[in-house]
Specification:
Helix content is about 75%, strand content about 0%. By secondary structure, the protein is mainly alpha-helical. Helix 3 packs antiparallel against helix 5, helix 5 packs antiparallel against helix 6 and helix 7 runs antiparallel to helix 8. The chain is globular. The N terminus is likely disordered.
Length: about 210
Amino acid sequence: MIKLKLQKFSVFSASKKGIGELKSEIIRKAIHFLIAFSPLMAAVNRQFTLFFLMAGVCCYTLMEYLRLSGTKVPVISSITRMASRPGDAGSFIMGPVTLGLGAFLALFLFPPQTAAIAIYALAFGDGFASLVGKFSGNWRPAILCGKSVEGSIACFTAVFISAYAVSNSVRISAIAAFTAMVVEAMPLDDYDNLAVPVTVGLIVQLALFQ
């Protein structure tokens, strides 16, 4: 009887942990997807969008330091706590910083069309790759450094669709999707938020001149 109760408790705990991980991952990727609005904002006012992104990064950085020092910031501290991974406890959470900087660099370095493709690769490619890989990724060959084939396919598909919506070019979309898939598969942690948009933007811009 005691063993049975322990087994039920173990299953319940595992289920509760899985739900918690799903919730935090969805919150993280919802924030990820929101960065897709930056090309639309830049189409209205590019300078304001650049300022808004940098101001957001600076404000978040300040609030993270306040949180780590024990000062609770209304709403922000709660969202950060809910979105944090198990290994993030007590440490500065870099994801939102690299996310904002990645979008900023794409808008600053590239013309509007290329910047939009690069930012959508960051928002949708990396976002869907993480969600699909975490909860449906079963095939993880060594070459992908712990990432899953399912996640890589999701990344390629999402970037191809979003790039085609911007460029109306199968060639450019395929180049952007393949580049994003390769970079996203690298073990860069939160720094893929910088690597994906910059690399995709650079490769796409070079491809446009061929």
